[in-house]
Amino acid sequence: MWKFLGGVIAAMLVMGGGLLIWQGMGDRPHVAASAPSASAANAAEPLATPPAADEATKEERRFNRYDKDRDGKIGADEYLASRHKAYAKLDTNGDGRLSFEEWAIKTTTKFAGADADKSGTLDAAEFATTKVVRKTRAPAPCKPDADD
Fold this sequence. Notes:
Strand content: under 5%
Number of helices: 7
Pfam families: EF-hand_5
GO molecular function: calcium ion binding; kinase activity
Keywords: Kinase, Transferase
Distance between the termini: 49 Å
Protein name: Histidine kinase
Organism: Sphingomonas crocodyli
């Protein structure tokens, strides 16, 4: 019986000590963990998701890609410059005109590459190789609750 009472008393002392520690932690203000130091960051794995740039920064970068002369304005020539480059890539003979063959070169090349038996037609297996493979985007990071 004394062993039982000794065990109960010991358990009560451990629980009482835990309660005191827990109450002591409640009196302190909540402090968020600080960011790891540069040396700790190098030793640790990289962040799962990089911090996202705010929309203003993204829009400023997009604007600057078009504003080639850096005058703070985008003229029609600057706005259409990327289209001119894309057109010039398609105009393979450089005559300033796009023939259907020049315009459809990617599709024509894709068809020719998929036509393994060079029959001029695609069977189901050959056609399956033309499937467009799209890059998947990482899911957007969750926003923390206002309570956190």
